[in-house]
Amino acid sequence: MTTATAGWYPDPQQPTQLRYWDGARWTGYLVDTARPDVVRYERPPWESSVPGVDWPLTIAVTSAL
Fold first, then answer.
1. H or E stretch at 60
2. Got the DSSP string for 6-37?
3. 3-state secondary structure of 62
4. Are 28 and 41 in contact, with CB atoms under 8 Å apart?
5. What's the pLDDT score for residue 54?
6. pLDDT value of residue 62
7. pLDDT value of position 59
8. pLDDT score at 51
9. What are phi and psi of 4, to 5 degrees?
10. CB under 8 A, 24+ apart: contacts of 26-35
11. Please, is 19 exposed, middle or buried when counting C-beta atoms within 10 Å of its C-beta (0-12, 13-18, 19+)?
């Protein structure tokens, strides 16, 4: 299995932005293509705001019950 090298790539959820791929996963670092000199951090929408809780899994398990 080949993975992409670390670097800036179009954000899978917002193609007008670049998101940093660390070689293993997407990070919260973003760059707007209109302002490539400004890097900001934003918690990725797929990461839980509650440490240790996997919300998609929690919802799936709850729905199955």
1. helix 55-64
2. SEEEE-SS-TTEEEEE-SSSEEEEEEETT-TT
3. helix
4. yes
5. 52
6. 45
7. 44
8. 61
9. -65, 150
10. none
11. buried
Q: List average pLDDT for each run of 10 residues in the chain, which is 65 residues long.
A: 85 89 91 90 75 50 46
17: nearest Cα among 2, 32, 34: 32
Give φ, ψ of 56 to 5 degrees.
-60, -40
Indicate the SS3 state at residue 2: coil
> How many other CB atoms sit within 10 Å of the CB of residue 55?
12
The structure tokens listed for 48 are 């839980």
Side chain identity at 46, as an amino acid letter? W
